[in-house]
């Protein structure tokens, strides 16, 4: 695996962790931080989509269980159709779709079973 691919995977994993932390802020009811957390989550989802777009075919092909086209497409929606983004959809992505992505990428980096996100 090239250094560039490793960097992209690290970027995705870091962005996933940030999204999870920011959702926790939303759940804590930190009213002053809700808008900021929503913006931060959207930004990190954009990073995930952009970094995924630069992964090698070997990484993509090694994880057919991951919806790579949808990850890239969601990034485009966040960037180009920002006015129509539904917070419930974003929460669903963070809570249900990012953990399997993180697991697959950790397996890619570590070459074995991934630890919990």
Topology diagram in text:
Elements: H1 3-27, H2 34-53, H3 57-62, H4 68-80, H5 87-110
Helix pairs in contact: 1-2, 1-5, 2-4
Structural description of this entry:
21% of the residues are buried. It contains five helices and no strands. The C terminus is likely disordered. With 117 residues, it is mainly alpha-helical.
Features:
5 helices; disordered C terminus; 75% helix; single chain; mainly alpha; 117 residues
Short characterization:
With 117 residues, this protein is mostly helical.
Sheet having the most strands:
none
Terminal CA distance reads 22 Å
- Helix segment tally: 5
Task: Provide the helix percentage.
Answer: over 70%
Based on helices, strands and strand pairing, what is the structural class? mainly alpha
Low-confidence stretches: 113-117
